[in-house]
From TrEMBL, chains A, B, C, D:
Record domain HTH tetR-type: where: 15-75
Protein name: TetR family transcriptional regulator
PROSITE patterns the UniProt entry points to: HTH_TETR_1, HTH_TETR_2
DNA-binding interval(s): 38-57
Source organism (scientific name): Roseibium aggregatum
GO MF annotation list: DNA-binding transcription factor activity; transcription cis-regulatory region binding
Keyword field: DNA-binding
Keyword set includes DNA-binding: yes
Taxonomic superkingdom: Bacteria
DNA-binding as UniProt keyword: yes
Amino acid sequence: MALDATPAQSRTKGRETAERVRKAALKLFAEAGYAAVSMREIASAVGVQPGALYNHFPTKQDILKDLMLSHMAALLAAWENAGFPSAMDPLERFVRFHIRYHLQRADEVFIAYMELRNLDPENFAAVEAQRNRYEAILTSILEEGSTAGRYAVDNPRVATRAIIAMLTGLPTWYREGGRLTGDEIETLYLTMVRKAVAPVDTQSQRETG
Amino acid sequence: MALDATPAQSRTKGRETAERVRKAALKLFAEAGYAAVSMREIASAVGVQPGALYNHFPTKQDILKDLMLSHMAALLAAWENAGFPSAMDPLERFVRFHIRYHLQRADEVFIAYMELRNLDPENFAAVEAQRNRYEAILTSILEEGSTAGRYAVDNPRVATRAIIAMLTGLPTWYREGGRLTGDEIETLYLTMVRKAVAPVDTQSQRETG
Amino acid sequence: MALDATPAQSRTKGRETAERVRKAALKLFAEAGYAAVSMREIASAVGVQPGALYNHFPTKQDILKDLMLSHMAALLAAWENAGFPSAMDPLERFVRFHIRYHLQRADEVFIAYMELRNLDPENFAAVEAQRNRYEAILTSILEEGSTAGRYAVDNPRVATRAIIAMLTGLPTWYREGGRLTGDEIETLYLTMVRKAVAPVDTQSQRETG
Amino acid sequence: MALDATPAQSRTKGRETAERVRKAALKLFAEAGYAAVSMREIASAVGVQPGALYNHFPTKQDILKDLMLSHMAALLAAWENAGFPSAMDPLERFVRFHIRYHLQRADEVFIAYMELRNLDPENFAAVEAQRNRYEAILTSILEEGSTAGRYAVDNPRVATRAIIAMLTGLPTWYREGGRLTGDEIETLYLTMVRKAVAPVDTQSQRETG
DNA sequence: AATGAATGAGTGTTCATTCAT
DNA sequence: TATGAATGAACACTCATTCAT
């Protein structure tokens, strides 16, 4: 006798629902903020009763944790597989990657920066560890580039934060279909970053400071 | 005349309570976010019953609006009275002012950036108008400096946003008493900003791009 | 020395405010019901702060009691001074008086019938005693008229209630300026009441029963 | 099929709770008035937490609307199925029906007359439409009877309101077990109504007016 | 996996009332 | 007599969560 208590169909249906919960929560959290979104709203967006959410996530907090951890994991994985020309300057590589990825995933990024304080301490630590790993990539690039004389950065940790803040601010105002194409924006930001860390020996600004 | 129906003492007491409400709400909103703070928590921090808050602010939303609008007004007023040496480069002036002001008012700044979406549309418009006025200051500096050849900025609006994002990110991680003094941080950021907008004619990065 | 702590001016002003409170409360209670009207609303209608009401009425309940008792007193006094031609049939006298008075004081009447249950037991007893005195007038008229053979009423208490209910329902729908004048309405109701209590010996309805 | 996601038992339990809410609210509204009854009181009478009420009625207003609309619907349905001897005079039919129904449903009737002003405009319109349908029944009876010469009614609309006010006032004071039986009361009122609309040709009151 | 009913705590806000001034 | 600030309790309603089915 076939006593399969959880047939393949059910498992698939469940996985699909979980995914719809993630998508709905992502959108709603990004729009209104974690604290302002209720489980009822998420359920309603999914087309399900509130109780059903608890078949897929044990608490509301777990939905947030899931979104943030999987975002960070996806970000790091995407960097690993970025596939830029090997001749490209590492800083350019990072800037282009960061801008493209963050413009594509505006909601995830927004949540990742806004909802950190709504994470339980344990989940916060996990997310922050990932974030540090990501920032360390840029710090390494700056350190190695400075050592090699390609860049001039006084304090790579500070420069990392400054650059990431600058780049990450982009999706809060940039909208596709506006005056600037994604490529143009990318170039504008890349130019500013490069100059900001460029060796200063012959820079004319010396005279104007 | 002895017919003063609202004695000065009462009014003074009320104004003091209102100020304590503002202070408590500022701290709590900064810590946990507007949506996650209850009127009861604010009242408790003030040392008053919840109902008493409504003698000073008609709604919770009005507290937020008050905090944000008065922050923006204070920011613009502070810029007017900044009092830098007149010989100082305008960009340096702006960067130093912005960093100093934002490090001193970390809570206000944090709220001003985080709680925009929790403002009613009307209040949002008012705050945004102020924000645009502030950003326009930097845009003007960049435009005039570019025309004069002191800076080289392809798109002053974009550069404004990039620079402000970079600078405003600072209070989220910088803590006094750490490795770097405020002056050191200021100098580090100032250097990066200057380089980012510096004329490029002789910049060595040209060769690495 | 003249140590008059409450000068005549003050006393007059106070009496005027009390009267304005009565008027405002009357209107608001009639519109929305006692329970749904707040002291703040009354104060606001008077143009005064809520606390000031307590200089004139010790509680909200006392305002209601004041309105209802003074209405009943005024109603009974008006009946005493009605001044109808002495030859007029007593029932006609009562019906005409009742309709006229109740159409003129629609708000008071409405409250007197609707807000009985919102009176404290003690106040309720006082108002009901007055109401019974008023209804006893009609009952007497019916009893005396029955004895004299002018009317035929099986149960004067029941007839009293029936007639008063009929008449008192009038102000709930009658509006001046509509199709019927006050006089016409008065005549229509008077006719119905008279017929209802008329001796039946020759009434044709006998045959239809 | 075992895929019934909402088992009959759950739905039944819910329907029973909703019915208990209706019953409790009916009693409490009749006693104290809609505005003076809190959701907490209703919940407590039902034996449930306040929040549970909202599984059955979206707002307090909806409970009132439900009570009033279903009362009006039941009243009209009861008239359709009243089942009086076909030979009975239509007016007698209506009076007997109205008195019996209204004595049996004193709470519903009381609410239907007292809480009209607490209905939202939309709900008020719906209830009033039903009320007009009910009153139109009596108006038709009076009109047809007048045409046929059975009754003499100057203004059937006014007479309708007068008669209904008279009859509806009954449950506010009549209590079973008192001096008069229901049948006796019914007869007393019926007699008054009949006389009030009776043809006047030979009425002796003519001489007394 | 999903429902609908329920809980117990909490939400922003309003209440009648008090009181120092 | 009136104010403005405060209280303490209550308001209608929503919350995240549980659970029998």
